[in-house]
User: Fold these one by one.
Assistant:
Number 1:
Amino acid sequence: MNIPKSNLKRIVVIGSGFAGIQFIKNLNVEKYQIVLLDKHNYHTFQPLLYQVATAGLEPDSIAYTVRHIFEKEAVAGNFYFRIAKINKIEASTNTIFSDIGTLTYDKLVISTGSKTNYYGNENIEKFAMSMKTIPEALDLRSLILHNFEDATVTNNEVEKERLMNYVIVGAGPTGVELAGSLAELKNHVLPNDYPELDIKKMNIHLVDATDRVLVSMSEEASKNAQKYLEEMGVNIHFGIIVKDYDGTKVITNKQSFETNTLIWSAGVTGNLIFGINNTSQEKGRYLVDEHNKIINHNNVYAIGDVALMKSDVKFANGHPMVAQVAMQQGKNLANNLANTLNNKPLNNFIYNDRGSMATIGRNKAVVDLDKIKFKGFFAWIVWMFVHLVSLVGFRNKVVALINWLIQYFSYDKHVRLIIRPFKRKVFEEVTSFRNID
Amino acid sequence: MNIPKSNLKRIVVIGSGFAGIQFIKNLNVEKYQIVLLDKHNYHTFQPLLYQVATAGLEPDSIAYTVRHIFEKEAVAGNFYFRIAKINKIEASTNTIFSDIGTLTYDKLVISTGSKTNYYGNENIEKFAMSMKTIPEALDLRSLILHNFEDATVTNNEVEKERLMNYVIVGAGPTGVELAGSLAELKNHVLPNDYPELDIKKMNIHLVDATDRVLVSMSEEASKNAQKYLEEMGVNIHFGIIVKDYDGTKVITNKQSFETNTLIWSAGVTGNLIFGINNTSQEKGRYLVDEHNKIINHNNVYAIGDVALMKSDVKFANGHPMVAQVAMQQGKNLANNLANTLNNKPLNNFIYNDRGSMATIGRNKAVVDLDKIKFKGFFAWIVWMFVHLVSLVGFRNKVVALINWLIQYFSYDKHVRLIIRPFKRKVFEEVTSFRNID
């Protein structure tokens, strides 16, 4: 990988998500040589991916290059970044094998986050859309817009129904925010773009196996979010378990749905790397001790979504896979490495849950804080403020804010460009609508 | 194509560039049924493509969806847009054959613009990068950024040289603006991103067969632009004819260049459609009369880059292939159709050349107007103003302006995201840099 030898201990970090970034930012970078590996050259602000998918924002507002984030550290000389795909870890020799060569480490920090969990259903994995990365969000955007273009061309009513139906599986924050955003497209944007289509026939189905939306939030938040969604025209179905999908029809334990677009936001699982032994894993995540060290290892750590910690009393089944946990674990691990250098005792990780929030549409959001829960316009302002200040970089904040302001006043979502048409993985054409005039 | 029958005459327009858009915008839309076909769902502001390629702007600033441009016309009910690839025109039966079906027309307007001209050199076509569309500009951006990522990994000096050398063929406005923009990356952005690399070793070669840059502008503008480029560190080579390129080495009539990235801006040719007979073509463009009607046809018109008109006395060899000509021809044709309806005489097309301009870098631009030529900061402000007001849509203007302001004050170009790594068309890997540590 062309990383120079150094007298300093080498810490290798895999993954530039919230956990990895916070870990390095809190590290005393003069004491180590740090190598960060990621398959992309940017950090993604995942909570806003749904806005990229629904034509609200371009990727440049929610992503930030890793080299820019660590410019100071790199200029100082102890920080190296490489785009790499990891093939294997060999903990016995402290070695990483990747597509750009091998690298040895003194300490390894795995912050690879999570990936979509299809629970082993291969058909769904083949045909459903997911939304964990920027390319996936852009593919979903292209598919949605292309569906409506195709709907103008066909005069087959079944095909038109499939093209205009959307089924979102999983009513967690991603599913709820995406459903709300699609409803805004339906209510404010698409009728102007497609006067030839009867956009009222567009159906947005949000289905979940449980009996409420936003099950990780308070019952009050669930109730309010559901009310908002229903007001906006989203069809919510509870107690639904999706069994199969062939690209045109969703089979569930109850009714079936005709749709060209199934969006899978029903679960995630740790993004594991080949080589860490199975006894250190549980539920698709790495089992870690109270200091985020992977059990049965001496110098390999996992932080963020990929880590499963049972020592934090309130979260004995593991922490929620959210940005706040990832950032706090990254910071705690960095502090503990400093403590080790200074012969101080280590701090056990205890998650400080600052609350959670979700936005459904303009002036419609729900916020759960420790002592207080609220909703509506003020919640929506709080949501925007928190997300704006969390975006990395001044320019990203300004560009996102400008886009939101213009959307707010114009009731429009502007980035409806189909730059790269989405090609379905398996077959090129579900629909066939060749006809004369 | 599912276009409803109408009592109105049907005008089909192929291509949503400057010419096609202006034509429809100036048409009395109540008198016709208008069908616009394009392979993309957006209009591209091509003069700023080089900024997308060099990480200055995202596509959403320089593109605008066709449906948004013609929202009013579509709601009124006489305008239809379809994403389509045209296979053939059959003028004898007034029929268009496309990937989404066939369509008959009463009048056909071809505004398909131009495409890159490789002058029959298949190797160059295979291995060179071009920049006529947004996907091409994004590919070039990905390749440039990936080159530097790869350069950090290799310790083979020849490979590193190839990755850090850029050869731009053709010193017209595109080549000059791209060279200037690459020089800004070299001087202000890349040294911070890649402290491990010696960015001084990056070479930007601008080569041209003639003896000056911007040959379509005044000699004064050429001289000033050349001086600016040289100050910024661009190597300019005149009298160079590129003979061959294999993805690593450029062969010319004089010296050769080792480079992974050859950017071809040496010429364009009309984007012809199969079916219009050869006697109506010359130099890769459709021969048109003084009203833009294709010769030997009664109801088929060509406007913009794809049209070759010899009747305009000052431009007996054809008009320059620029936006101004395209827009004026579109407008003139629309007015002439109105004149026909009103039994008024037709207006011959006469190009009103308002001047030309090019920007090389911050505070560095050249402007040729009819009576006056100027350069420097004021020219640069004029360039920015003209391009900002020409962008379609309020939001695009605001987002581009914000980006330019932040770039101006930060000396930075922010959209350095490699969203989709560029895959070279022919072989996956020119370079091979596997090594241990």
Number 2:
Amino acid sequence: MDTVITISRQFGSGGRLIGKLLAQKLNIPFYDKEIIVKAAENSGFAKEFIADNEQKHSGFASYAIPTSAWGGISWSNLDNFEAKIYAAEANAIERLAKQGACVIVGRCADHVLKDKVKCLNVFVFADDEERIKRVIDVYGDATDRKKAQKLLRDKDKSRARHYRYYTDAEWGDAANYDLCVNSAVFGIDKCVEMLAAAYLAFDKK
Amino acid sequence: MDTVITISRQFGSGGRLIGKLLAQKLNIPFYDKEIIVKAAENSGFAKEFIADNEQKHSGFASYAIPTSAWGGISWSNLDNFEAKIYAAEANAIERLAKQGACVIVGRCADHVLKDKVKCLNVFVFADDEERIKRVIDVYGDATDRKKAQKLLRDKDKSRARHYRYYTDAEWGDAANYDLCVNSAVFGIDKCVEMLAAAYLAFDKK
């Protein structure tokens, strides 16, 4: 029972909540922001610095960092903040994953752990209508429909760019994952149930 | 219990077999080639003609048919064979789907039935290694690894082009479906079990 579940998710799909409830159901640890803290603790960066910078990928593509910058990490060769943060997070993810079964949300964990740890890689997405509703009513990140739509578009673009940059693969392309589920169609609880069943089936293999 | 399950699948993923076993498990009809026959019966085309032509999409993109050619069918405006066949198949799919719950494999059924019939849209895919094995050992469509690889590439391209042409969406993009499953990871039987559970959850909604 040492399989790690990685969850990539569209913003507003409830993927983080699904991951959290799934970890509770399976009684295994759940990691998202904690990874940043771990990364901070072990890389010498101040936590605040990482928290401030780790989501700012807007000017990201202008850095000339090789895609493989995070692999076989050579600190002295990394001369920009984002790559260092990514590398610190990748190190933390790998260390956590090697401690045993857990759920890790986001941060290209599927790619970081590829060929290193047995993973069930999941992608959670949802219809735009449901995502807009969630962004307004649950996250409280937007006050109206138009703002929510813009936020979805921006977040989708940012995550896709980030994923493509580090993995050379397309975020949301089914073939990158083991299981993709539309949370708007099944609802949060049923998604958790389905993923738990899939995890148990997978872990037995 | 009138939800239709549509299955899009990568060649060599076992998606057709999964669909067949799923239909058996749920005790509902299963359609793939039968659709062609139905289409033939109701459109005036000879069955042989359709069987000969319906998979030949190599020179397809050169025809100047609007993407919406099959919708609101106006026969006199369709001046090429492929579009007529697609329209005949779309008609047949819609007619079959409206008879009640069933499993339909391939033929852009997800797109044909959009906003017309309640559908659970599934995409089945698999790792290349597993697909190559299946193409050689199960289908017997290739005698060696190299030929199998070429066949996979050709089929993937052909299905992606066909899907893109008629739906304006990307084949294999998770967000087009409700559930995507890697059959190499779970195995055929477990996929059937998972899809049956998803179907029952979905149908209750």
